[in-house]
Amino acid sequence: MASNINNYEVALFGEFYAKDLPAITNRFTLHSESASQMHAREIVFEPFDGQYQRDSGIEPVLLRARKELLEPDAKWIHPEATVRPWATVQVIGDALSFASALGYVRRSQIYKRGYAFRRGTLVIQMFQQEQVDPKTQKPIPAHPDTLWEVEVKTATPIRNTQETPLSRSIETVLEVQLLMKGLLDLRRQDV
């Protein structure tokens, strides 16, 4: 008998003002194995009938395409993000055409610029969103007073099994929430 094991992403989110950047960066740096700059392009797609699904009381499954811009040979990564279900597919060629072929249409596009930290099985991204120039499709640098956003999440898909229970990943993410207490409010974010 075959069992269907789902993959999940466990995540917490937060935001803060630029004046708190040094203190929050220092705390993450002290409690992480590595830190690096990040600049990513993220496009969110929804099924072509997404509005119909919402009108029918069904939340459509979104497809998120992400590409790291600081890595010259970076590939598009597609996590299916909706604890959230998660699947990762590596695409060779044009990821945007791939999403279209699956029946998805572009819903939004943002650029994220900031820092990424590794802490065990977690990746912590701290970034400001950059808007997209409608003519060039290139990022427009964020205003210095733009809120910083934080995503603390599992770096790879988690399978909920006896050997690797989902509760272990939840505890790991909650440890970061406790670590940042008093400096950054990390919380759950519904789809």
From TrEMBL:
Q: Where in the cell is it found?
A: Nucleus
Named from the GO MF annotations, one term is: transcription coregulator activity
Name the GO cellular-component terms. mediator complex
Does the UniProt entry include the keyword Nucleus? yes
Q: What is its main location?
A: nucleus
Pfam families annotated for this entry? Med18
Q: Which Gene3D superfamilies match?
A: Hypothetical Protein Pfu-838710-001
Q: Which domain of life is it from?
A: Eukaryota
Which GO terms fall under biological process for this protein? regulation of transcription by RNA polymerase II
InterPro entries for this protein:
Mediator_Med18 (IPR019095)
Q: Does the keyword Transmembrane apply?
A: no
- Keywords in alphabetical order, please: Activator, Nucleus, Transcription, Transcription regulation
What does the subunit section of this Swiss-Prot or TrEMBL entry state? Component of the Mediator complex.
* Family listed: Belongs to the Mediator complex subunit 18 family.
**Function, in words:** Component of the Mediator complex, a coactivator involved in the regulated transcription of nearly all RNA polymerase II-dependent genes. Mediator functions as a bridge to convey information from gene-specific regulatory proteins to the basal RNA polymerase II transcription machinery. Mediator is recruited to promoters by direct interactions with regulatory proteins and serves as a scaffold for the assembly of a functional preinitiation complex with RNA polymerase II and the general transcription factors.
Q: Which protein, by its recorded name, is this?
A: Mediator of RNA polymerase II transcription subunit 18
Organism in which the protein naturally occurs: Meripilus lineatus
At the highest ranks, the source species' classification is: Eukaryota, Fungi, Dikarya, Basidiomycota, Agaricomycotina
**Which gene does this sequence derive from?**
MED18
